[in-house]
Amino acid sequence: MYDEDDMLPISALQHYLYCPRQCALIHLEQVWSENQSTAQGRQLHDRAHEAGPESRGDVRVVRGLRLCSRELGLSGQSDVVELHHPRPDCPLDEQACVPGLDGKWTIRPVEYKRGRSKRIDCDRVQLCAQAMCLEEMLDVHIAEGSLFYGQPRRRESVVFDGSLRELTSQTAHNVHQLIRRGVTPPPGNLSRCRGCSLIGSCMPERTGRARNAGLYLRRQLREALACDPPGVNGHE
Question: Whole-structure pTM over 0.70, yes or no?
Answer without folding.
Answer: yes
